[in-house]
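Need residues for this backbone.
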């Protein structure tokens, strides 16, 4: 507080020597700076509140309620002031980024700003302050796929096929840019469109996605264990095929209502994967599934990553 008062006193002394119009301009700039700092403090102070008492303005956007948060970011539901369009704003706290995360952020922003695909979340705008980066993204009113599965339970094979076609199309774009998502799971897949014509969008690429030159392998452990490929659980090098395993786990969950493998710890989870001789399909639905569907799920969830075929298999394109 003493430092702040000292700065204010120095500003008053300096202002006395300025012409009145300069003092007025300086005063206006100071008030704007204070207002900007107050808004940032409010954003950080209200991070624990799901709904803001009053919307906070960031550029042309009004932040209204918190959708989710992590240790380094908060995602807000927001509204465009000029037209009323709903958007999502991801607030990233720059001070919480290490060098690796900062590099990931730059890489994925370049990717998202250059891609416009119906099955990948769209980046609309980027705003930056001294302490935060604000990514304005399209808003998906249908929530995420995890909530959808909890609400509706397992889905019919025809709908699962349609969902997989959409996710396969999105992953094809990622692979063409040599990007691994690394944390593909129902929580990171958003739903848009109408109830009868749902569109899936791959999201949360920032901080999860990783650019990888052809023929190279990544080593960092990243992802959610229930959807994580065994080579990642074993701290082995991996490539884009780890996303295929995650896709297989999602397909299995769509058809059965739960992930294919479980365990109290990562070690137990890995043991259950390795000891499995066949996928634990529910006997209530297995007789009703087309053999191609079961075969695709088995291939994607093979412990041999070389068998994790995706885009060339008829199941995706049929």
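Answer:
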């Amino acid at each position: 507080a003493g430092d702040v008062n000292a700065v204010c006193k120095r500003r008053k002394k300096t202002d006395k020597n300025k012409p009145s119009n300069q003092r007025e301009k300086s005063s206006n700039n100071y008030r704007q700076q204070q207002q900007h700092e107050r808004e940032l403090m409010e954003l950080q102070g209200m991070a624990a509140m799901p709904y803001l008492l009053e919307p906070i303005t960031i550029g042309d956007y009004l932040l209204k309620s918190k959708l989710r948060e992590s240790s380094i970011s908060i995602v807000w539901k927001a509204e465009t002031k000029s037209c009323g369009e709903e958007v999502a704003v991801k607030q990233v706290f720059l001070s919480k980024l290490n060098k690796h995360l900062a590099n990931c952020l730059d890489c994925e922003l370049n990717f998202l700003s250059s891609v416009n695909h119906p099955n990948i979340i769209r980046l609309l705008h980027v705003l930056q302050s001294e302490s935060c980066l604000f990514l304005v993204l399209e808003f998906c009113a249908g929530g995420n796929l995890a909530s959808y599965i909890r609400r509706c339970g397992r889905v019919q094979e025809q709908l699962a096929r349609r969902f997989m076609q959409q996710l396969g199309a999105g992953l094809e774009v990622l692979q063409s840019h040599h990007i691994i998502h690394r944390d593909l799971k129902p929580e990171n897949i958003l739903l848009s469109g109408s109830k009868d014509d749902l569109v899936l969008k791959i999201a949360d690429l920032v901080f999860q996605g990783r650019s990888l030159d052809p023929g190279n392998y990544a080593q960092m452990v990243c992802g959610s264990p229930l959807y994580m490929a065994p080579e990642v659980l074993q701290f082995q090098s991996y490539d884009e095929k780890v996303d295929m395993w995650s896709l297989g786990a999602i397909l299995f969950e769509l058809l059965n209502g739960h992930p294919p493998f479980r365990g109290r710890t990562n070690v137990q989870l890995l043991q259950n994967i390795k000891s499995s001789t066949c996928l634990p399909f529910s006997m209530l639905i297995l007789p009703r599934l087309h053999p191609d569907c079961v075969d695709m799920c088995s291939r994607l969830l093979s412990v041999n990553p070389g068998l994790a075929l995706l885009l060339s298999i008829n199941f995706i394109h049929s």
